[in-house]
Write a structure and sequence with these properties.
The complex is a heterodimer of chains A (254) and B (192). By secondary structure, chain A is an all-alpha fold. In chain A, 87% of the residues lie in helices and 0% in strands. Chain A has one domain: ABC transporter involved in vitamin B12 uptake, BtuC. Classes of the chains: A mainly alpha (254), B alpha/beta (192).
């Protein structure tokens, strides 16, 4: 009973508290932190749409975010990178809130997604985070040198006759899928807080890239564990507690 | 084709032609300087060889399988990035051996905490040390002090002795004279 109520959600969130700060470092490197918020809102809308359609919300959230991640590149050049994320963010948020407001079936999940109620996480989500998160970390490790080089020397791929788009598109898709799973577990703002604040703090203080990744993970995990205990102890929604704790840490450390 | 690269009556530019026609051959182990006043298209020519700028007429013939490295005047975006010199060189595949003493001891410092000259030289070293048959350098002495220019000159000779071809664009005539086997003075394009 205790396991189902608290241990499974705790472990699910813990996996994300490791993964999201690492992903956030690469989003920050690419100056694409707004993408995190965009994918999270699109995933929320997708999950609610799937629920109304009688499909698993996790599949709907992941499909919508993956579609956004893959499709964004098609329109990004015309709109400008940041504009495409802003449009995705606003579109996803509008659809999600309207669905939650007008469909009784979607209301409860809508609140969970926007309030950030980690306690709905179950064994299937834990498996998804465990296996998918492990695969995502391995993929990031493999992509890391190329993402760094693409940022530092944008001409390098052309000079070496290598196509840059598979790396960029692969990273976009990976980020979208991770954000979808994180949104369904931690809520929109909980996921965003973990992806934005630990890397922001790590980038300011870390001595090098590896130390930055380690520091971001450490901050993310400490904040997560603290927020879990506080939210549980004071019976509060998890997402806002995590966000306010990270904001406090940010003000303290920065 | 023994030459690394051969330019024949090459006219390059970005939106419109910006260079006078140029013939140039670079052989392995040769250091070639490109000089000339602002606006003759020195950087544009390097850009065309690297595939960045447009070729309006003439042609570029590259040795099959040619590996290129390019240093541009754009400084890599390092501010705010937690990356040290050792990581930068490892990413580029460049060996830190041979770095000047005033830089070798600062490899573990974040790049955005180095002086402008130190940062520039490390970014330049990452390009120079990367696996390449032909290295293109655009104003490499910018931000360098006398010791930096001297070390760069010496290193270009060493790199060339290993068979690498090097094309250097610079306004620094004494540097070009010391570093290059020959210097090509570019002419201003005809303006109609």
């Amino acid at each position: 009973m205790w396991n189902e109520l608290f241990l499974l959600p705790f472990l699910t969130g813990l996996g994300l508290a490791v993964l999201l700060p690492v992903l956030g470092c690469y989003l920050r490197l690419r100056d694409e932190w707004l993408a995190a918020l965009a994918y999270a809102n699109v995933a929320a809308a997708g999950a609610l749409l799937a629920l109304i359609g009688g499909l698993p919300p996790a599949a709907g959230g992941a499909a919508a975010a993956a579609l956004a991640g893959a499709g964004k590149r098609l329109v990004a050049r015309r709109l400008g990178g940041a504009a495409s994320y802003a449009l995705l963010l606003l579109g996803g948020w509008s659809v999600a809130v309207l669905l939650a407001a007008n469909q009784p079936l979607a209301e409860r999940l809508g609140h969970a997604l926007f309030d950030g109620q980690l306690y709905f996480a179950d064994a299937s989500l834990l498996w998804l985070v465990g296996l998918g998160g492990g695969a995502a970390l391995l993929a990031l490790r493999r992509l890391s040198p190329r993402l760094l080089l693409a940022h530092l020397y944008p001409d390098l791929f052309r000079l070496r006759g290598l196509p840059a788009w598979p790396i960029q598109a692969g990273f976009d898709l990976l980020a979208a899928l991770v954000l979808a799973v994180a949104t369904l577990s931690l809520g929109v703002m909980g996921a965003f807080a973990l992806i934005y604040i630990p890397p922001w703090l790590a980038f300011r203080r870390a001595a090098n890239w590896r130390a930055g990744l380690r520091r971001a993970v450490l901050i993310g995990v400490l904040a997560y564990v603290g927020a879990f205990a506080l939210a549980l102890g004071f019976d509060q929604p998890f997402g806002p507690v995590l966000a306010i704790l990270l904001v406090g840490l940010g003000l303290l450390i920065a | 084709m023994n030459a690394l690269i051969r330019l024949e009556k090459l006219v390059a530019g970005w939106q419109s032609p910006a260079t006078a026609p140029l013939d140039l051959v670079v052989a392995p182990g040769e250091v070639v300087g490109l000089s000339g006043p602002n606006g003759v298209g020195k950087s544009t020519l390097l850009g065309a060889v690297a595939g960045r700028a447009r070729v309006f007429s003439g042609r570029i013939e590259r040795r099959p399988g040619l590996r290129l490295a390019l240093q541009t005047q754009d400084i890599p975006p390092l501010v705010g990035l937690p990356l040290d010199g050792r990581e930068l060189l490892a990413l580029a595949g460049a060996d830190p051996a041979g770095l000047p003493p005033w830089l070798a001891g600062r490899l573990d410092v974040r790049l955005d905490r180095l002086s402008g000259g130190q940062r520039h030289y490390l970014a330049l070293w990452a390009v120079l040390g990367a696996p390449a048959d032909l290295v293109l350098l655009d104003e490499p002495t910018n931000n360098l002090d006398v010791a930096g220019v001297r070390h760069l000159t010496q290193h270009l000779h060493e790199r060339a002795r290993g068979g690498t071809g090097i094309v250097v664009v610079s306004h620094d005539a004494p540097f070009l004279a010391a570093a290059c086997d020959r210097v090509v003075a570019l002419e201003a394009p005809d303006v109609e």
